[in-house]
Amino acid sequence: MKKSRLASIQLPDHPHLWGLLLITAIAYGRLLTFPSLHLACPENDTWNLSIRWSVLHALRDGHIPLWNPLSAFGIPWLATWQTETFYPVTLLFNWLGLSFWNYSGVLHLLIFSLGIYLFVRNQGVKPFGAFFSASLALLNGCAVNHLGSNSSMDTMAWLPWVFLGAQETLENKRWGQWKLGLALTLQIFAGYPQIIFYTLLALGAYAFFVYRSVTRLILPLAAVTFLTIGQWLPSLEYFFFQAVRLPAIANNPDFVLPLNNLLTFITSNALAQKGLPDYVVSPTYFYFNFYSGLIPIGILLTGLLGFKKWKPGTAFWFFSLALSLLWTFGFFSYLLQLLHLPHSVFLEPAKAWVLVNFIELVLIGLLWESLFAKADTWKWGLLAAAVLNLIIPIWMHPVEKNLIPPNSALEQTAQKVKDQLGSGRALVLIDQKNSGDIYTPMPDPELNAHFKYFAPNTNLFANIPLANFYGSTCPSWGSMNAELYFKYAFPYTNGTLLDLLGVDLLYLNQSSMPAPFVNMGTLYGWTLWRNPNSLGRAFIYKGDVSTANRKDVFSSFASGQSNPQDKLYMEREIFTDAPQHAVPPNDPDNHYDVPANASGYLVVTQNAMPGWKAWVDGKPTNMYLADWIFQCVPIPQGTQSADLRYEPSSFRLGLFMSLMTLSGLLAAMTAFLWQRPKP
Q1: Distance CA 603, CA 599 (A)
Q2: What burial class does residue 370 get, using C-beta atoms within 10 Å of its C-beta: 0-12 exposed, 13-18 middle, 19+ buried?
């Protein structure tokens, strides 16, 4: 009888698999039983859940979410890492809705834990030592604190599988290259760019220092590169050429972790102050809580004493842990600054937390093997103590209700805003204290959702366009300028920039405003102010055009020297060429009817990112850059309509190459499966 081709795939020992499922049920049972709850964390309500909801709306409407018109005058949506458009688990959200939120988080924790188990076993560790590491993978602070952060959790889940596939590839096992390719593909589609970057960096170091070769990795890495290009090419274009990266924290531009976060290895609430939980005191650093308990740290410290007996692999993982910790906590950043060497803000050393977490878990398993290879029944007591030490903080962590539509409070508030909103957008201007109130809500015994008022991007739930942008990567074509204006110049000005930006409604913690703003009432203690001079989502400009640099243009409108109806600053050079195909798209959201006998320029108050195309009365036409921020299309006399569409070349080219690569891989897989196994 021929040996099955799948026989080489090693599955975990059944008792340990059931053990991981039991620990998961005990730790996360309440989240699985009540899917309307999630672990309390501000970014879930104001960012993660709302992004997932927005993507689901697009997919259910039958189109790929290339563009998000609701935030910051429009931003590329596929290109941002949070959307996970091509990630397979997104299909489950598409079928089951946001009620799948907790199940997705726990599912990826299990994927991560199982990958840790198999990879540690492949390092020669006995089942119990691998089970010890896999149990910690389910419960440690890095994993738990990202339970509601889809993209980072999903990207982290496939990291051990990438290394497992690489190991089998480097050892020339039959299915190794396919495993590596599949795991890395899923990780890239999950989409968190820094985690992917650090994974590839560590993978190269692992192959070079442990196996003294990287050549066998070239073919699967090349295949994955072309297979996933439909995802990463638009992201590369946006992040490196069309966006401005702002510091995640103003007083920490390199985004490194403070040294006091080292305490979170041993204390789950190390960042707490005056009895407040750490995610309220410092929500950003809450996400990088490394808590794994005293017992695993004790194993690491005890293992250091036996360094003379380490195998080469153990030494590699120890030095990798030391280097990644030094990088995460900024020691190399300080060195680069002293040497006056450039440092990319994209790297964000704090984002190496996933690598630190993974390496620590692998090292614990290896050290367990060297320290307790002959451990007796007492090892189960040690495991139980380590697991209980981690489960207690999980059960102590407060939960709150998901902000899942239909949510009556959200819908009522949204409707009141929409009743006052014209054809433009709203602006929510918050100061530092207000921002803290939104971002750091206290645990609520009533389990209420903490949207409080419309902060970006909670508006994605309610389909309300906001002028604000929430995030550290702003589109370079104007959005950053508008954000700075809102932050530093508004509202004590007589300028006309709000009119140009199409801001119809302002929602402010402001009891008085100068003319012409009109008080429309209060909601949750904040006041709605109407801007009667707003030009909305689009307007026709009649008259001559001028040119000026970006600073002068924004200064003229902010100071009131220029009025957008009387002054148009337009670049003479074509911003985007006329599209190749003559048939305009059928897109009601980007269709504009032109008033009779109007001529001049149609100015659409939306970011003029490269990739937008225009048709006038069905004929392809060039697009220009208006006022250094918006889309501008010439309108001849007698024009009836104009149509716009966002279709960046990077996406079309990337999707074509991805589909061609997929076809080639399917053909190669078919040939691979039909090959007769060698005797």
Answers
A1: 12
A2: middle
